[in-house]
Design goal:
The complex is a heterodimer of chains A (181) and B (191).
Chain A (H helix, E strand, L loop, with lengths): L5 H9 L7 H9 L1 H17 L12 H52 L1 H26 L5 H36 L1
Helix pairs in contact in A: 1-3, 2-3, 4-5, 5-6
Chain B lengths: L10 H9 L3 H23 L1 H17 L10 H20 L5 H12 L5 H5 L2 H13 L2 H11 L5 H8 L3 H25 L2
Chain lengths: 181, 191
């Protein structure tokens, strides 16, 4: 029989009750290399399972840990309320801020020149609604919520730039009109 | 409402009751597993911080008791919580996680009365073994200690250390190889 493998020596070495086959026993009796290696494995196991490694915690460990449980329980009774309030307020403030910003922009545009930019304002208003809906989705933790926000924000930026470009054209016309007259 | 004595309960019942928030059940879990959790913290942090860290680990486990799965052994889960907490503390203190802690643990161990088994190992060889253990990478050292000292199965060690079972076996083989050589070299140096 050839030498015992590392894995087999490990198995026999870590478990003193692991049964060696008759062939393995015969080999171990005849092979000093394998016998020495197995003896070293078993000695190491003995050293590592010695009581000296089993250091116990202080005697009052359980009592002191239980006291900390009660403190943690008291904290838990308070913490969820505050956390829930924070959770419910944060998305709302985001949605409010976004809505307010777009409302101000829309009113500004409307005041600048209602008649000329009405078609663009309609587009902008539609996109604002999309953004608000997307923010609501994000706040409700729908997995694709942030994607909706990004896509909607891009659409609104486009509508915004179109509206601004229209305003610039109108202003140019107002400047040029007296000269032409 | 009446409950049978915690001692009469098997671990699964205990875990189920603890998961539902029964403090007495969780206290029984602490009683059963305090040693393993404390020793793990001791290896990472040394005696000064080990007790506080072990208690914090139990409190953290208690506050996250909803994650406790009564169908699985409790100890590997507790050890995962304790190990992550100990590693966080080591990082926070920016100190080496192994050498001083294990050396301190050894000093702690040396104050205790030696068992018959321990007495059989020469002081020089035991010291060499401790030094070599302290020099092992965390994973290898923990695999060895959880296997030999705590008596955990490969699967439970893998859960505790958050690695595949194959990695645990590799770590054990490598670590034992190094430790065996350390013992052999200590023997050669011995008078």
């Amino acid at each position: 029989m050839s030498h015992l493998t590392d894995d087999r020596l490990f198995e026999l070495g870590v478990d003193p009750d692991a049964p060696a086959s008759a062939a393995e026993r015969a080999h171990l009796e005849a092979c000093p290399t394998c016998a020495a290696r197995l003896a070293a494995e078993r000695e190491l196991t003995l050293a590592l399972t010695a009581d000296a490694w089993r250091i116990e915690p202080p005697a009052d460990f359980v009592a002191r840990t239980s006291a900390r449980f009660q403190a943690a329980r008291a904290e838990l009774a308070v913490a969820p309320t505050a956390a829930a309030a924070k959770r419910s307020l944060r998305p709302l403030s985001w949605a409010l801020a976004a809505s307010a910003a777009f409302a101000v922009a829309a009113v500004g545009l409307l005041a600048a020149n209602l008649g000329e930019i009405v078609p663009h304002l309609v587009i902008l208003a539609k996109d604002v609604m999309v953004v608000v809906a997307a923010l609501a989705l994000a706040a409700s933790k729908v997995p694709l919520g942030p994607l909706f926000v990004a896509a909607s924000a891009a659409t609104v930026l486009l509508a915004w730039s179109m509206a601004m470009s229209r305003l610039v054209n109108l202003s140019d016309r107002e400047i040029n009109q007296p000269a032409a007259a | 409402m009446t409950h049978s004595s915690p001692d009469a309960l098997d671990e699964r019942d205990l875990a189920r009751r603890a998961a539902l928030g029964e403090e007495a059940a969780f206290a029984e879990i602490v009683r059963r597993h305090q040693g393993a959790v404390y020793r793990l913290c001791l290896r990472f942090l040394g005696p000064a911080d080990a007790e506080d860290a072990a208690q914090e680990a139990f409190v953290k486990a208690f506050t996250h008791r909803g994650q406790l799965d009564p169908e699985r052994p409790v100890l590997p889960w507790l050890l995962t919580v304790a190990r992550n907490l100990a590693i966080d503390r080591v990082r926070r203190h920016q100190s080496s996680p192994t050498e001083p802690a294990v050396e301190d643990a050894d000093a702690h161990a040396d104050t205790r009365a030696p068992s018959a088994e321990h007495a059989a190992i020469s002081a020089q060889r035991a010291a060499r073994l401790r030094r070599e253990l302290a020099e092992l990478p965390d994973g290898q050292r923990e695999a060895v200690m959880l296997f030999h000292v705590e008596g955990l199965a490969y699967k439970d060690i893998a859960t505790a250390l958050e690695v595949p079972v194959g990695t645990v076996m590799t770590w054990l083989h490598r670590a034992r190889g190094r430790l065996r050589k350390a013992l052999e070299s200590a023997e050669e140096l011995a008078p």
